Amino acid sequence: MKVRVQLFGVLGRKLPPYSSAEGVEIVMPDGSTAGDLLEFLKIPDAWAPAIAMHSRLLRPEDMLTDGADIRIFQSVHGG
Predict the structure, then answer these.
(1) How confident is the model over 26-73, as pLDDT tens digits?
(2) What is the full DSSP assignment across 9-67?
(3) pTM
(4) Neighbour order of strands in the sheet with 69-73
(5) What kind and span of H or E run contains 4?
(6) Where are the domains of the chain?
(7) 14 φ, ψ (degrees, to nearest 5)
(8) Top-level CATH class of 2-73?
(9) What is residue 68's DSSP assignment?
(10) Which long-range contacts link 18-26 to residues 24+ away (Cβ below 8 Å)?
(11) Which residues fall within 8 angstroms of residue 39, CB to CB, at 6 or more apart?
C-alpha cells in the first residue's frame, strides 16, 4: 500500500531530502499500522509523536489505509 506522509516540526530532518510542502510517498506492506510507519521512519516512541490520518488521530495499533494522507506532528516539550 502507498501512503503520503507529511512531517511537522524537526521530524522532516529524518528523511533528507524532504519537501515539507509535498511530503513523501511511502510504500508499506498491506496491514501496516501507524506504529509500523513510525518504526519504518525511525521515529522513536519516546518522541511521543501525534499521528493523524484523514484528520483523525491514530493510536500505534490503528491500521493504515491505501492512499491515506498521514501527518505526523512532533510533540512540544518545555517548561
Answers:
(1) 999 999 999 999 999 988 888 889 999 998 999 999 999 999 999 999
(2) GGGGGGSSS--TTT-EEEE--TT-BHHHHHHHTT--GGG--EEEETTEEE-TTSBP-TT
(3) 0.85
(4) 24-27, 2-7, 69-73, 50-53, 56-58
(5) strand 2-7
(6) 2-73
(7) -75, -20
(8) alpha beta
(9) -
(10) 26/2
(11) none
